[in-house]
Design a protein that fits this description.
The chain is of the alpha/beta class. The chain has eleven helices and eight strands. The chain has two domains: about 5-120 and about 195-260, Alpha/Beta hydrolase fold, catalytic domain (Rossmann fold), CATH 3.40.50.1820; about 125-185, no CATH class.
Length: about 260
Amino acid sequence: MDKKTTSRDGTPLAYQVTGQGPTVVLVSGAMSTGGTLAPLAQRLADRCTAVVYDRRGRGESGDTKPYAVEREVEDLAALIDAVGGEAALFGVSSGGALVLEAVASGLPAGRAAVYEVPYADFLQGGAEREATYKEQLNKALSEDRRGDAVELFLRLTGLAEVMIQRARQSPMWAGMEAVAPSLAHDDTVMGDGLLPRDRLAAISVPVLAVAGGASPEWMHRAGQAVAEAVPQGTYRLLPGQTHMVEPEVLGPVLADFVTG
């Protein structure tokens, strides 16, 4: 990241700007830094000014305590001010939940798009699974068992046990443990894991909810529900895509929405 700004509570935020055109701030999900969305930013660059940043507690950004979702909304406000005072927002997974909360709270963003926010009420037993994860995650982090916290998250995503153990032996594991405390941030953003219909009904800007055609059916239902709950909501399904959406496929759809 080659630029820095400061949030309202004094937290330094690292960010990077790519391209030209209408501005869109890209918000990463759990276990991710701004670099995770850099390939998408590059794909948008010929039509949009794409901003990627390290959310607080990750990468080159700071992490002032205590954490609150409101502080992350203030982070987005600071970024928008830093890049000209006007921007659309895009968030992936739990980053999408942050984007929706930001625009529901009145953050001055002209448009918002989200990709596969994992609301648990569309998965059978999802609410109970979310509650168990929250309890176990908080315990692991309170005891500084970062590796165990990462395992809990990977297990929540459905990753097979053999793949989790392989990940533990990989060179990337140290980096995953480094951002493990931020899992609590995403968990707080997701709240009880259920679709916040009343909150979404307060959103006054156009919202695009996107899901991958190769993702589980419950993800499709969650995306549709977001679009239906927002007064100006639209739903789009990308054939053949999973939760790890390809920038080459998502990029044109997002650019059309931001520039439209």
